[in-house]
Amino acid sequence: MTSTAPVSRLPVPDLTDEALATVAAEIAETAPEYDRTGDVPVRGLAIAHRAGLLTATVGRQYGGRGSGPGETARILTALGEGDPSVALIAANTLAAHSAQAANGHWPAKFYHDVLRRSAEGPAPVNAIRAEPELGAPARGGLPKTRLRRTRSGWLLDGHKSYATGGTALAYHSVWVVADEPGGDPAAPRVGHAIVPGDLPGITWVDTWDHLGLRASNTHDVVYEGVELPEDAFVEIPRGTDGVYRDPAAMAGPGSFGHPALYVGVARAARRAFAEFARARVPAALGKPIAATERIQSVAGEIDLQIAQAETLLHGVLLRIEAGDTAVLPQLSVIKVAIARAAVAAVQTAVAALGNPGLSRRNSLERHLRDVLCVRVHPPQEDAALAAAGRRVLEV
User: Fold this and answer.
1) 378: helix, coil or strand?
2) CA 2: distance to chain centroid?
3) What is the maximum span of the chain, computed from C-alpha positions, in angstroms?
4) pTM of this prediction?
5) pLDDT at site 133
């Protein structure tokens, strides 16, 4: 059990709309540079840290604010509007702190250390789960990554893919199978190993060369004989039928941080479209294109899509907070609808501008690349729709 001794030095977040907008604008200044270089967005993370946005979900028992899903969504929309790579790293970190606040499953020494680091500067955390051969865990299967029992604890060995945060991660939560004496090879224990990011035996492989979220540093990572204490393994219980089901296969209240950040990307695209439309004065027109009915209609369509995404996002979280359990089976398809609306908003802006919207000199090109990444987060659209269909058809 983790100690509940508070850490009082964590930065205190200001979650007013004005404060979040200021943070988003400051982070946005560095986003184009990090998109070009692909480096860890250290300045953006530092800004988010100083604003208390990387630790807002730290539980009250640890001296944190204890933000719930609603506040978390607002934070990540603001960060996504500034730099979605920063927002993705933040989303994973906030999710880890939220889970710890609810379950207290980290080794006491490790969680005290991550809080200490978080008081001093950015200390990102991520659940590292995908593997080169297995792919996304939500699609089924068990990891090849193994946690082998030793006399003093565990040894971790394996190869993971899409480990967002890269070398900036202070801690990894690694999805593993336990290899232990007396275990059932047909039904091994499955869970996460809590791993400090600076331990010997951790090697990063620079594989991330993606269309969008280029600064997220979602590289491969290899673990070779990484030594861990006995309490570093956190088991994920099997179902009552004895079958292991991946938690990410269905959306839950805490999984709306990812779509929230892409709503922020859509908001950034709306702003970029408006700025371009006000500044663009074709010689044949003699006035800004913003004055034309066509561009005004396009701006209205963009706003409609964002309003739809935001209403779905915050509406479903408010229903959950109010105790409405009837919406729970629909969470996965609601995430799909939010993603579709965010993508549609950005695509509408780019299509209306033609070549300028696809120019590297125009931030809309970057927003388009970034927003398309919403489709990779589990549960993915095809899986969500198929599950909803089976529920509706009762098959």
Assistant:
1) coil
2) 25
3) 81
4) 0.95
5) 87
